[in-house]
Design brief:
The chain contains 3 helices and 8 strands. The protein has 145 residues and is of the alpha+beta class. The chain has a 6-stranded antiparallel beta sheet with strand order 1-4-5-8-7-6. The chain has a two-stranded antiparallel sheet with strand order 2-3. A hairpin with a 6-residue loop joins strand 2 and strand 3. The N and C termini lie far apart (42 Å).
């Protein structure tokens, strides 16, 4: 029984803590321009991010921007079927359920950050009217069938 308990705790810790690293926004927050089809850096501040080498889907970030939703909508590609993936509980700035509900209700808008940032994976960016922004990786059409 003790071995099972230790193994369970070890697996839990490995999944939620061991593989994640804090990341910086070295390349900035990038979103894909409607006209050029190329990702470009947007204004941002207060960046917090995590990622892991164990999976391309573990990236999550939180930030703020001073760019308005109207300007973003006219400049960057909208992202259909944006579905934020949950983050570890300790990364408390990223609430996937609340972000997903806000996108569904139209309160927040989802944009294509970068298509195929990793093979078959897109970076998606969601922005709220007050400037709060969130980014995550999501499987793209390569894996949708």
């Amino acid at each position: 029984m003790g071995i099972a308990l230790v193994a369970g705790v070890a697996i839990y810790w490995l999944q939620l803590y061991a593989f994640y690293d804090e990341v910086s926004a070295e390349d900035g927050i990038r979103m894909t321009n409607l006209v050029t089809g190329q990702p470009e850096v947007v204004l941002y501040d207060s960046f917090e991010g995590i990622d892991a080498d164990s999976s391309p889907l573990r990236y999550r970030s939180c930030f703020t921007t001073t760019m308005s939703l109207a300007m973003l909508t006219e400049t960057f590609e909208h992202y259909e079927h944006a579905t934020p993936l949950t983050a570890p509980r300790w990364f408390d700035c990223f609430d996937a359920v609340a972000i997903g509900a806000a996108i569904e209700s139209g309160e927040a808008l989802a944009f294509l950050g970068e298509h195929n940032i990793k093979d078959g994976v897109d970076r998606v960016v969601a922005i709220f009217p007050d400037g709060r922004g969130y980014a995550w990786h999501q499987l793209n059409e390569k894996y949708s069938e």
